[in-house]
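Field log, afternoon session.

UNIT: design team B
ACTIVITY: writing a sequence onto a fixed backbone
BACKBONE:
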């Protein structure tokens, strides 16, 4: 599933300030309804709602190489969660790396991301399952 990245600082700030939060050992996940989802749906060629996702790693984590590695791992864990589970759309999701994420692997992050999504109510079910 393709996702659009957050680029504007005010959206990150809004998610931090007003969004629901789930904190773990490796990551913090912030979730906020996207009030521009209908506008983005009309602009999307597939005419489907999308999530806007922001992935952050602060300078406290280390040099640029370390931060970029953390962001790559977080991005891959998010992709894996989207491939495995049916994630609600029309949301702003911010995934922030914590200090322990520097030494973590993708499987560790994924194992923490899925329960965080469940806690925030973002998971509808597994892909391929029928919810009746």
């Amino acid at each position: 599933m393709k996702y659009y990245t957050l680029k504007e600082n005010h959206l990150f700030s809004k998610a931090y300030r007003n969004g629901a939060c789930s904190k773990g050992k490796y990551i913090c996940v912030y979730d906020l309804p996207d009030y521009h989802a209908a506008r983005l749906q009309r602009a999307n060629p597939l005419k489907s709602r999308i999530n806007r996702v922001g992935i952050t790693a602060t300078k406290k984590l280390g040099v640029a190489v370390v931060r970029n590695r953390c962001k790559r791992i977080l991005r891959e864990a998010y992709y894996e969660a989207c491939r495995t589970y049916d994630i609600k759309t029309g949301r702003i999701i911010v995934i922030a790396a914590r200090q322990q994420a520097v030494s973590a692997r993708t499987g560790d992050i994924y194992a923490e991301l899925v329960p965080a999504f469940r806690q925030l109510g973002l998971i509808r079910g597994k892909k391929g399952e029928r919810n009746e």
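LOG NOTE: The helical segments are 9-18, 37-43, 64-84, 106-120.
NEXT ACTIVITY: expression trials, pending approval
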